[in-house]
Amino acid sequence: MLSVNLSEGARRAYGGDGNVRLPLLALLAKEPAHGYELKLALEQTFGQAYPSPNIGQIYVTLKRLEQDGLVRSEDVEQTTRPNKRVYELTPAGRDALRAWVSAPCDGPRVRDEFFIKLILAPMAGLADRMELMNSQRRHYLGIMRNLTELQADADPADTPARLLIEGAILHLQADLDWLERCQEELV
Amino acid sequence: MRRQRHPRGGDPPVTPRPGRLPAPPEPPGAPPLLRASKLVKVYRADGVTVEAIRGVDIELAIGEFVAIMGPSGSGKSTLLHVLGGLEPATSGEIWLRGQRADRLSTAAWAVLRRQHIGFVFQFFNLLSNMTVADNVELPALLAGATPRQARKRREELLAELGIADKAGAAPARLSGGEQQRVALARALANEPSVLLADEPTGNLDSSNTRDVLRLLRRAHAGGQAILMVTHDARVASLADRVINLFDGMVADDAKVVPIPRTVNGVGDVLEMRG
Fold it and tell me: How far is B142 from chain A (nearest CA, A)?
């Protein structure tokens, strides 16, 4: 099953594989920065909405972006501390960023693991459709309970977090509505 | 009968909640609050027969919150109306607090309903020619409360629901969310044993839904038993149990089991279904 909120493109950029390439490019488009500043900026922008990437992941990603010619860096001397490496966007980086921002994200998912089970399992004599739908509905409702509690507890000032939860809730509601449609047509 | 909400000379009053104080623990072997068995409802008109409810068994315990879901036409609203005595059952039994209700005369059913059942509907059904205050006080007055008791209860409820300043307004002057809060106050005015709600958020936008949700949660936490028909999974997920109705029959009846919360909270919203 694909994720609730992020298109595959966004996931590649900032998702399950831990890749923060495009968000880092976007932050560097504003001004040059070093690794730790970028980590802080991500945290400030997204609040609780996304897990904070660890600093090692950010350094590794910056190095790869540099190898790909999307950023360049220089050491800046500091009097009391070790030098810090400041990164800035290259014209190629700006093009990559622009292409990412302007490309539409994937629409609703068309393949759904549960749906494949629902169609195939009864054909294979492995399960009853009503039972499958009932157990899936119970699972969705359990997730929904969790989300409504998260929503009630969310910091009202943390707009990205609130919107993310609301998005997840709306997707889940659509999943349940669709389950109902499957029930109407398939049972 | 109204309960004493603030014991005098005892502990300081608890934060007022919509609905009643926590229900007393159910004595062992006590009958369920509401029970129906082999319930059937058939509509006949112009030679056409529609079996809306086809043999439903259902129970609601004291203080329990049960949601009824199911596709349109599955008989959800009909079930609620029959359980609440708004329409007669074709056959089967309905028991309310250990008393057989479906054999009562229309008048006796109405009295029982007034004492023990509160209704909330999708379209609020407020009396348009009366003020908000009068809408909320009316059920208490009908149930025999003094005007003073009814007014006090209304003031408490409207304050709890955040619409105290609307008491003198006509319902039509209020937003949908406010009207539904008034309807909720009216339904809770007699501290009913059970609140029957038919798509109470069906006509509300997202933020008003959240408000009504919060109020229902509080009422339930305060011991209010609720039986609610809903399409809204947010609302249903707050219930103790969800019944899925399909084709006039119970297709599923299961407790809502929250999926354990993950360590990163909101950050894991994405990962939970990955």
Answer: 37
* CB contact (8 A) between residue B270 and residue A166: no
Q: Based on the domain organization, do A92 and A141 belong to the same domain?
A: no
Residue B59 CB-half CA count within 13 A: 7
**B residues 190..229 contacting A (CB < 8 A):** 206, 210, 213-214
**pLDDT truncated to tens, each residue of chain B (274 aa)?**
444 444 333 333 334 444 444 445 555 567 799 999 999 999 998 889 999 999 999 999 999 999 999 998 899 999 999 999 989 999 999 999 988 999 998 889 888 888 899 999 888 889 999 999 999 999 889 888 899 999 999 999 999 888 899 999 999 999 888 998 999 999 998 889 999 999 998 888 887 888 888 888 889 999 999 999 999 999 999 999 999 999 999 999 999 988 865 545 555 554 433 2
Residue with tokens 């909320």: B136
Residues 6+ apart with CB under 8 A from A165: A147, A150, A151, A154, B266, B269
Domain of residue A138: give its range.
113-186
Contact check, Cβ <8 Å, A142/B233: no
What's the alpha-carbon Rg for chain B, to the nearest Å? 19
Residue in A closest to B264 by C-alpha:
A51
**Are both A76 and A127 inside the same structural domain?**
no
The interface predicted TM-score of the complex, written ipTM, equals 0.77
**Partner residue opposite B258 with nearest CB, options A15, A49, A145:** A145
Residues 16-75 of A with CB under 8 A from B: 16, 48-52
Beta strands (DSSP E) in chain B are: 34-45, 48-60, 65-69, 91-96, 99-100, 117-120, 194-198, 225-229, 241-246, 249-255
Q: Is B256 on the interface with A (CB under 8 A)?
A: yes
Counted domains in chain A:
2
Q: Which of B23, B18, B16, B84 is nearest to B229 (CA)?
A: B84
* Chain B residue numbers touching A3 (CB-CB < 8 A): 270-271, 273-274
**Domain check: are A87 and A137 in the same one?**
no
